[in-house]
Amino acid sequence: MTLIEVRSLSKRFGGLQALSEVSLSLAQGEILGLIGPNGAGKTTLFAAVTGFVRPDGGSVRLDGQEITGLPPHAICRRGLARTFQLVQPFPELSVVENVMVGAFNRTRSAAVARRRALEVLALTRLAPLAGRPAHALSIGLRKRLELARALATEPRVLLLDEVMSGLTPTEVDETVEVIRGIREAGVSIIVIEHVMAAVMGLSDRIAVLHHGELIAAATPAEIVQDRRVIDAYLGEPLAGKRE
Ligand SMILES: Nc1ncnc2c1ncn2[C@@H]1O[C@H](COP(=O)(O)OP(=O)(O)OP(=O)(O)O)[C@@H](O)[C@H]1O
Ligand SMILES: [Mg+2]
Hints:
Elements: E1 2-13, E2 16-27, E3 31-35, H1 42-49, E4 57-62, E5 65-66, H2 72-77, E6 80-82, H3 95-103, H4 110-123, H5 139-151, E7 157-161, H6 169-184, E8 188-192, H7 196-202, E9 205-210, E10 213-218, H8 220-223, H9 227-234
Helix pairs in contact: 3-4, 3-5, 4-5
This protein binds adenosine-5'-triphosphate and magnesium ion (MG).
């Protein structure tokens, strides 16, 4: 079943065509990787899908319902959550309190929000840090916290924007496991990522943006063989992509 259907989505910033008639779908239970060079339009696609920027054309459907042009909080309510590339937790609040902020999207009860936050901390392997202030976390763990905050809104679809960049190899492996666990819990996921080994291993399918255009969408095995993708982004050999 198709959960998200993006059709001919376009966005222009002044003279720059950031998204050019991008069409893309996400199936229930799928992990879709979204890759492409710096400035390709990946974050803009997330922003246009989640209501943070208004597209100039095209449509976004969530579970068959048109959500194009709705404000971000309304889209979040419907079950579509995103993380931000630049993470900004509330630094003085504890880890669990930061996650409760997300949980308040669904409840007014602090007790319910705390319970939900603790579940999310377990799923994201942050439970041992629940009482720490957010500012005390490493950048890697702050990214994990950002993911946890988005998850606490109880999304059906989670959009992750470079949650693995700047992480140590051990932290990358752990985050890959966390994302798999989130999918097992029934959430469908799109991941923007420059860490190629991680995104190729994690994703069922990969979509590639280049200058705002979708140039390929296929399995990871097909993508690494795709001539346009190699020329535009992957290079040869497939290794050492910068962030
Ligand atoms: N609010 C904005 N106003 C003007 N230009 C913007 C805005 N947001 C993005 N852009 C431009 O749109 C293009 C696409 O940017 P976007 O952030 O979507 O790229 P990206 O694929 O996420 O890149 P990266 O991998 O570096 O994060 C870039 O040229 C960027 O400078
Ligand atoms: Mg980006």
